[in-house]
Automatic annotation (TrEMBL):
Residues 111-176 form the P-type ATPase N-terminal domain. Keywords: ATP-binding, Magnesium, Membrane, Metal-binding, Nucleotide-binding, Translocase, Transmembrane, Transmembrane helix. This is Phospholipid-transporting ATPase. Residues 8-25 have a biased composition (Low complexity). It is an enzyme of class 7 (translocase). The active site is at D494 (4-aspartylphosphate intermediate). It is a multi-pass membrane protein. One of its GO terms (molecular function) is magnesium ion binding. It catalyses: ATP + H2O + phospholipidSide 1 = ADP + phosphate + phospholipidSide 2. Belongs to the cation transport ATPase (P-type) (TC 3.A.3) family. Type IV subfamily. It comes from Marchantia polymorpha (Common liverwort). The keyword Nuclease does not apply.
């Protein structure tokens, strides 16, 4: 993953992305991929670098500018701002004037400093915030509206409404309301509790106080009363109340350190600057009357465009000059800022939206089966309605004489409600709908949420997914897709920081055509004397101060001695300038850390007024590990960066401090893919230093066609350096190219004029600065290249091997060079030397199409084939629901070691006759993702065992994921650790973020987060398998449980003239799903497991059961429905045949049926429990006992609503037939199911059944090295 493109997406604390400027053409803008589903589902993307290893992530910019007086450079006046996606701000000429500038109030905001009344005149928001969802007035209507987004709730609402109609009220109106009311109230209480926590947080936030300038002094003021334009003073370790432009700080340099953990989750300190023109202006000492013009509020936390109108002089402001609400001041005594955005207009609040919602595949399939149940329900009700109509027609002449159906009440001589044959049929149909409403299980929705909640708890507390190094536990950020973890088919992974550690170490240097790759820890240089430094003690002495870089780097002895010697050769001169570029061309800020006598560590910005007699360490503060590694390497070779101010930097060059004036900085952006800084050297010459991606810098170095003379030496250096770059890439190293150029005064003045104009523009600043950079970034002199090592994380090769054995395809999407990506592929065992590598590197759509078509023809790839069919010589894979690893024998044929089973499950490893690997770069993807070519790309990629996409941009990552999702319908998982992975993470069905070195943008946008890539194997193979198996069974069981109850009621209406007469009490109808049978379902679905984690790791191919939907599919659904019909017939007819000649009334029969169905479904569940525990016993047997007790209590209530049932339970329990019926119902109803299970497991066992049998018998051989990571003690886990 690219550190250079780390900020291409800016997620909010809730996981959303910030809006951004138009995206460069990394995907064909005319393609359906760009315009279609991705565009509709993907939030806007800030332009980013398509390269992953080309350039360190850019952040704070420290730039100076000049007064423009008579064409001579003047005093430094400003620094730059921070913007990774755009070079929103670099230095400018402080005295530049924009005569006649007119700001459009529709696109800009005018803030009158220290005059809040004028600043807030145009309906500017106050600083009071509200993150809660509801208020007292809106809670009820809004909460109900949100809950009724579920179609099932609308269905039950219709049922309740129908039951309130007297003609259709087949059971108590109050009882009909209870189920829906219970669900709505329970959900509303949960939502209210969650929202009350937000209300309390809001009240605490709004009532905090900050020091606000009242015209005389700074006095405390509540946050909610702070207004735009006011000046706020923030003290150390306090949180910033609003978005404010930095005016002054306690540091003479205007530097301030802030922590943005509350905003973007990043814990590393960031630097912000006050402009030099304002840093000395204290509002308590002198009146402040200036105007600040800025852009309108927006959600981009990494961009800010504004300028300060200081008496007609426009001073540009950028992201480095603004501190956002929620940031915490660190290592700085105080700051003063001007509020520009307050309350709901702050960037933090604009980003405070809910995370995008995802629905699991299992839930979507459940909705499909729910529709079948509704159709089934309508069929049953139609039978009841039509039957009633036919019966009424057949007995039309006898309706007044039938004892149980009369049209007239002869006692009162009044007519009963009679609607005719058709009307009676309609009434019967609607009444049946009410009686049979439980066919759709409303309790299932609550059960799902509860089980998912416990599953998330188990995953969060899993000791084997706790990363002790970073003290981070697994986090479940989306509760509704836990089961999708058990069905993943494709894993799309970033490389840098995901497969690798993203802890950069300087490895090799290519300087002037020489490869210095023999890095060592310590060196004893020859002839070290005065003015020399040694690697072992490269401390810098400044007067009576002594400072030493805290982190060093290994150095090459030959290069080290070359730098120690005199700069009298072309090679040594190039080496010195090479190191100078590493130390100067960056945005790293050195801080001086010292340990006080009391043991307290203090940190402050490095400056020339640090005080006498101080000593300690220099620590480099930077958001990019790449830049920190390069600066540390330069320091190890003798170029120690000591200070960075607005307009200059101080570098200790081989023991001699030298100050360099910064004239301008062109930040890294995704179009240029390089960074440049213009420096005035101590001798007065002006030089341009450049570093960037190889393809971005090599294209602008001197060539033989340049007007500037080109030496043969330089030509040779270019060729040799290219060879070194290729060699570094093959070793998996990250590369950058270093170059420089001396600028003449005329070119510099032309550049400076345009640079000033561009840096104060509020509307197209990035584009103008990019155009300005092209004036000087040309005809460069190549100095060399750098190689940085980023090592693989622990357990990555083993994890990838297990995932592949599980049938999961692992794709790597990276911005690194092709050679680097291939090298990492071999290192992590993604690629093997016996694979056929299909490399696509085309620059046109026609070329990409031709290459892909030729590959298909050469390897016999067709649209129906995937990697398995290619390996098996063209055969297609088995149909849905069939295991691809089927054990061919019975249980008796299993040997003691159970090895034949393992050989079958791991057969894929040995069946690799023609494994293919596709490697394609970003330029080729631009054309391959075109609608005319994408089908060919899909067919080739699907036939390959491995796919590596290199040089890809974030938008392309999302496009690749979307291609597989849309074409295959398989579940996809994307995993990454940086902002440039956010689009891919949100596009995938399951998004996993790693909390690594690149901040927490990926974590905040993900569904699940964890500390290391290796935890993915346990997340999928163990928890994913368990989650899917448990929820699949729970859904099918809920369908069965309610359907058997409804069918039992349906058989009864066949003997009641098709009327909706009910033998079961109204309250039993309500309690059946909510009380009698719900608890066992939840307990079993939460705790039961078919296989141990040990077995699942031993045989990863068992994961394929979820991919093939073996536990939940339409075939299983209809088999369950057939079994339900049989059980309901037994349940109804056994008591009916026993009592049809007796004096037991229908309520007595209803009592038998009620208790019988509860006993039946609980024993059905007990048959399927695979691992008993005390909770399973307590819930199942306790549910049966509880039902019995509740029925006795209801039977004893002498109130009007229960009078028809009074004493019926006690009466029928006294008869032997009652108990005999219960004894007969259970074996007769469950016998077919039991026989089918026995036959299937005996003669046609699935992989899971075989493995489970092996566990029970103890015949599984675990002699091989266990594949589980070491456990972490529970008491060492951080609090949740």
């Amino acid at each position: 993953m690219s550190t250079s493109a780390r900020f291409l997406l800016a997620p909010s604390p809730a996981g959303l992305l910030t809006p951004a400027a138009p995206t460069p053409s990394v995907v064909d803008p005319n393609s359906e991929v760009f315009q279609g589903s991705i565009q509709s589902r993907r939030p806007p993307v800030i332009p980013s670098n398509p390269s992953d290893g080309e350039h360190p992530k850019k952040h704070r910019r420290v730039v100076s500018s000049h007064k423009e007086e008579k064409g001579e450079p003047g005093s430094p006046v400003h620094h730059s701002g921070e913007d990774v996606s755009k070079e929103a701000f670099s230095g400018s000429i402080a005295g530049s004037r924009r005569a006649g500038l007119k700001e459009d109030p529709r696109t800009t905001r005018v803030v009158f400093v220290n005059d809040s009344s004028r600043s807030t005149a145009d309906s500017v928001a106050g600083n009071k915030v509200r993150t809660s969802k509801y208020t007292l007035l809106t809670f009820l209507p809004r909460n109900l509206f949100e809950q009724f987004q579920r179609v099932a709730y609308i269905y039950f609402l219709i049922i309740v409404a129908l039951n309130q109609i007297p003609a259709l009220a087949v059971f108590g109106r109050t009882a009909s309301i209870f189920p829906l009311a219970f669900v709505l109230i329970a959900t509303a209480l949960k939502d209210a509790y969650e929202d009350w926590a937000r209300h309390r947080s809001d009240m605490e936030e709004n009532n905090r106080t900050s020091l606000v300038f009242d015209g005389v002094s700074f006095t405390p003021k509540k946050w909610k009363h702070i207004k735009v334009g006011e000046m706020v003073k923030v003290l150390a370790n306090q949180i910033v109340a609003a978005d404010m432009v930095l005016w002054a700080t306690s540091e003479a340099s205007g530097l301030a350190y802030v922590e943005t953990m509350n905003l973007d989750g990043e814990s590393n300190l960031k630097t912000r600057y006050a402009k030099q023109e304002t840093a000395t202006k204290n509002p308590e000492d002198e009146a402040v009357g200036v105007t600040l013009i800025c852009e309108l509020p927006n959600r981009n936390i990494y961009e800010f465009q504004a300028y300060l109108d200081l008496h007609g002089t426009h001073i540009p402001l950028g992201p480095n000059n603004i501190i956002l609400r929620g940031c915490e001041l660190k290592n700085t005594s105080w700051i003063i800022g001007v509020v520009v955005y307050a309350g709901k207009e702050t960037k933090a609040m604009l980003n405070n939206s809910g995370a995008q919602s995802k629905r699991s595949r299992l839930e979507r399939q459940m909705n499909r089966e729910t529709m079948w149940l509704v159709i089934f329900l309508l069929v049953l009700c139609s039978v009841g309605g039509i039957g009633m109509g036919v019966w009424v027609q057949a007995h039309h002449d006898d309706l007044n004489t039938l004892p149980y159906y009369r049209k007239k009440d002869f006692e009162d001589n009044e007519d009963y409600r009679y609607y005719g044959v058709f009307g009676e049929a309609v009434v019967a149909f609607l009444s049946c709908v009410i009686v049979f409403q439980v066919m759709v299980p409303i309790a299932l929705y609550i059960s799902l949420e509860l089980v998912r909640l416990w599953q998330s708890r188990f995953m969060t507390r899993d000791m084997e997914m706790f990363h002790s190094t970073s003290n981070s536990r697994f986090q479940c950020r989306a509760l509704n897709i836990n089961e999708d973890l058990g069905q993943v088919k494709y894993v799309f992974s970033d490389k840098t920081g995901t497969l690798t550690e993203n802890k950069m170490e300087f490895h090799s240097a290519s300087v002037f055509g020489y490869d210095y790759d023999n890095a060592q820890v310590t060196i004893d240089p020859v002839g070290a004397g005065e003015g020399m430094i040694t690697h072992d003690d490269n401390a810098v002495v400044l007067g009576d101060q002594k400072w030493k870089p805290k982190v060093g780097a290994k150095v090459d002895p030959q290069l080290f001695r070359l730098l120690q010697g005199p700069a009298d050769t072309a090679e040594s001169k190039a080496a010195h300038e090479y190191m100078l570029v590493l130390a100067a061309c960056n945005t790293v800020v050195p801080t001086r850390v010292q340990l006080a006598a009391n043991g307290e560590i203090t940190m402050k910005a490095a400056s020339n007024d640090s005080g006498p007699g101080l000593s300690g360490f220099i620590e480099y503060q930077g958001e990019s590990p790449d830049e920190q590694a390069l600066v540390a390497a330069a320091a190890s070779y003798g170029y120690v960066l000591l200070e960075r101010n607005f307009d200059n930097i101080l570098i200790n060059v081989m023991g001699k401090p030298k100050r360099y004036q910064i004239l301008g900085v062109h930040e890294f952006d995704s179009v240029r893919k390089r960074m440049s800084v213009i420096i005035r050297m101590p001798d007065g010459t002006i030089k341009l230093f450049v570093k960037g991606a190889d393809n971005a810098v090599m294209d602008i170095v001197k060539t033989e066609d340049d007007e500037i003379s080109q030496s043969e030496v330089h030509t040779g250096i270019v060729g040799i350096t290219n060879q070194h770059l290729e060699s570094y890439s093959r070793k998996g190293l990250r590369t950058l190219v270093i170059a420089s150029r001396e600028l003449d005064s005329k070119l510099f003045e032309n550049w400076r004029y345009k640079y000033d104009i561009a840096s104060t523009d509020l509307h197209n600043r990035a584009g103008l600065l990019r155009d300005t950079s092209q004036m000087v970034e040309t005809s460069l002199t190549l100095l060399g290249a750098t190689a940085i090592e980023d090592r693989l994380q622990d357990g990555v090769p083993e994890t990838i091997a297990l995932l592949r054995e599980a049938g999961i395809k692992v794709w790597v999407l990276t911005g690194d060079k092709q050679e680097t990506a291939i090298s990492i592929g071999y290192s992590c065992r993604l690629l093997t030397h016996d694979m056929h590598k299909l490399i696509v590197h085309e620059s046109t759509k026609e070329g990409a199409l031709e290459t892909l078509v030729s590959m298909k023809a050469k390897y016999g790839i067709s649209a129906e084939q995937d990697e398995h069919s290619i390996q098996n010589g063209g055969s297609t894979k088995s149909g849905n629901g069939d295991s691809s690893h089927r054990y061919s024998g019975s249980y008796d044929n299993m040997n003691g070691s159970f090895s034949s089973f393992g050989d079958n499950l791991l057969a894929d490893k040995n069946n690799s006759r023609k494994q293919l690997a596709l490697i394609i770069d970003g330029n080729s993807l631009v054309h391959a993702l075109h609608p005319d070519v994408e089908q060919e790309l899909f067919e080739v990629a699907r036939a390959c065992k491995v796919v590596i996409c290199c040089r890809v941009a974030p938008l392309q990552k999302a496009a690749v994921v979307n291609l597989i999702k849309s074409k295959t319908g398989e579940l996809t998982l994307a995993i990454g650790d940086g902002a440039n992975d956010v689009s891919m993470i949100q596009m995938a069905d399951v998004g996993v973020g790693l909390s690594g070195q690149e901040g927490r943008q990926a974590v905040m946008a993900s569904d699940f987060s964890m500390g290391q890539f290796r935890f993915l194997k346990r997340l999928l193979l163990v928890h994913g398998h368990w989650n899917y198996q448990r929820l699949s069974y729970m859904i099918l069981y809920n369908f069965y449980r309610n359907a058997v109850f409804v069918l039992m009621l349906f058989w009864f209406i066949l003997y009641t003239a098709f009327s909706p007469q009910n033998a079961v009490t109204d309250w039993s109808l309500v309690f059946y799903s909510l009380i009698y049978t719900s608890i066992p379902t939840i307990v079993v679905a939460t705790l039961d497991k078919n296989l141990s984690s040990r077995t699942l790791f031993k045989f990863p191919a068992l994961y394929g059961a979820g991919q093939r939907e073996q536990s939940y599919n339409q075939r299983l659904f209809w088999i369950t429905m057939l079994d339900t019909i049989w059980q309901s017939l037994v349940l109804f007819y056994v008591p009916y045949m026993s009592y049809r000649q007796s004096d037991v009334d229908l309520y007595g029969l209803g009592s038998i049926w009620t208790f019988g169905v509860v006993l039946l479904v609980n024993l059905h569940l007990a048959m399927d429990v695979q691992r008993w525990n005390w909770l399973a016993h307590a819930s199942i047997w306790g549910s049966i006992v509880a039902t019995f007790v509740v029925m006795l209590v209801l039977d004893s209530l002498a109130v009007e609503a229960f009078l028809p049932n009074l004493g019926t339970m006690k009466h029928i329990m006294g008869q032997v037939a009652f108990w005999l019926d219960l004894v007969l119902i259970i074996p007769i109803a469950l016998l077919p199911r039991f026989c089918v299970i026995v036959m299937k497991q005996r003669f046609w066992p699935s992989d899971i059944q075989i493995a489970r049998e092996g566990e029970i018998r103890g015949t599984l051989n675990f002699s091989r090295t266990e594949r589980q990571p070491p456990a972490v003690e529970l008491n060492k886990l951080p609090p949740a």
